[in-house]
Amino acid sequence: MARRALRLGARLPLWPSTDHLLPADVFDEIAAEAEAADAAGRISDGALDRLRGVGYFGLPVPVGYGGSGAGLLECAAVQRRLAMADPALAVAANMHLFSLGLAVEHSLRRNDACVLLLEAIATQSRIVASAFAEPGLGGTILRSTSSARRTDGGYVVSGTKTPCSLAAQCDLVCFQMEADPPEPEGLMIALLPAATEGVRVEPTWDALGMRASGSDTLLLENCFVPDELVFHRTRPGHDADPVFAAGMVWFCLLTTATYLGVVQAALDAVGEALRTSRVTYLDAARADLPTIQGLLGDRVAEILALDAACTGLARAVDLRDGEAGELVPAAVAIKHVAVAACIAAVEDSAELVGGRSYARAGTLARLWRDVQAIRFHPPTRPASRQLLGRWALGQPFVYELSEQPAPENGH
Q1: Hey, which CATH number is domain 13-83+93-126, 3.40.50.12780, 1.10.540.10, 1.10.10.10, 1.10.10.60?
Q2: Taking the CB of residue 322, how many other CB atoms lie within 10 A of it?
Q3: Which of 32, 41, 58, 60 has the most other CB atoms within 10 Å of its CB?
Q4: What is the pLDDT of residues 154-204, one digit of tens each?
Q5: Model-level pTM?
Q6: Which class for 174: exposed (0-12), middle (13-18), buried (19 or more C-beta within 10 A)?
Q7: What is the percent of the chain where pLDDT is above 90?
Q8: pLDDT of 405 higher than 90
Q9: Ramachandran angles phi, psi of 242, nearest 5°
Q10: What is the pLDDT of residue 5?
Q11: What is each CA distance from 3 to 268, 330, 405, in whole angstroms?
Q12: Superfamily of domain covering 242-392
């Protein structure tokens, strides 16, 4: 029991089993291809096919509509497990789950055609690219520079989405757009077939880490978006919208769970390295040295606390224990703390192993590169620390960075 947490594939009791959702051997097969995918800088088509074959892309869709009916806690557990196998694939697929979570939260509040879109995604194993990132937005999804002009039966949209994971592999694109000229509920979320005329992908992704996440640039050039594919509307900048609030909670927890999987993969690798590496003049394995144990324990303490916080809040969401807007500060806080804790856990653990962990072909070097990407997922730390500070002072807060006094119409 003393070493269980550091063995490959170990599962903390805090996290539910995912075996009823995805077979364990699928993760092993994906893990076997992760290093090659990173070296090539592109997602493994075989890994995506495996996820299609086991129903991954319909995880949060209700069973009655052809999905697995997984709640946020189960989806987060799957993300953690997938990231242990292939972090880049997990980060890319996380955007799919976020979009589906947003659509599920919408369908719980509004009985409309959104459920038909969810059913099609689940039953046909469609991949959804989440195209919310845009140049100049600073990470907010409450606004858009993608201009939507009203026309008969829908909108004509143009804009740039980058980085957009799974841009070249997706069947559908989920994105926000803003009506021009403005409309009362002019910020809209739509699901558009990737084969739509005017949708184009530029292969621009060449990054330090998460190299096999397929996060390229997606261009919308005078694309027609029918009204029936617009599944949510709200006021631009209106973060009191309950669907956006729920989406923020889903994204923060799914993202945190994904990077906790990266950390667990690093701990697995570090544990094995420390047990097999000896300090000759002490005639002892590194794993048996109290100094090494203590330093590793400091990092593990932070990660276990995040595991507990992430699973606890996800369980509260599934139980509908409070409105989504009330849970946003806690979700943002978990993700905020995870940035420093996950990076430190991987970096310090690798340092304990010594210089061989810095080898380019080594697992730890790849995980060190991958974990750095947690810095850039919204809400980024400048925005989240402001939100949490205003919340603690009882002031209205928003989900995006603001250099103005706290808004009267915020939360």
Answers
A1: 1.10.540.10
A2: 12
A3: 60
A4: 999 999 999 999 999 999 999 999 999 999 899 999 999 999 999 999 999
A5: 0.94
A6: buried
A7: 82
A8: no
A9: -65, -30
A10: 41
A11: 10, 31, 51
A12: Butyryl-CoA Dehydrogenase, subunit A, domain 3 (1.20.140.10)
Residues 6+ apart with CB under 8 A from 345: 263, 266, 267, 299, 300, 302, 303
* 3-class DSSP state of 200: strand
Structure tokens, 293: 């144990």
Whole-angstrom distance, CA of residue 349 vs CA of residue 364:
9
pLDDT reported for residue 103: 92
Please name the amino acid found at residue 191: L
| CA gap 298, 89 in Å, rounded | 29
CA distance 41 to 189: 30
> 172-179 and 128-131: which strand pairing?
parallel
Distance CA 399, CA 387 (A): 7
**If you search the block for the tokens 């002072």, which residue do you land on?**
393
What residue ranges do the domains of the chain occupy?
A: 13-83+93-126, 129-234, 242-392
- Which amino acid is residue 61, in one-letter code? V
CATH superfamily of 129-234: Butyryl-CoA Dehydrogenase, subunit A, domain 2 (2.40.110.10)
Tokens of 242: 């309950």
Name residue, tokens 């947490």.
Answer: 5
Q: Tell me the two tokens of residue 374.
A: 């947690």
Phi first, then psi, for residue 54 (nearest 5°) are -110, 10
The tokens for 410 are 């915020």
How long a stretch of residues is the chain? 411
Q: Give the tokens for residue 141.
A: 């999804």
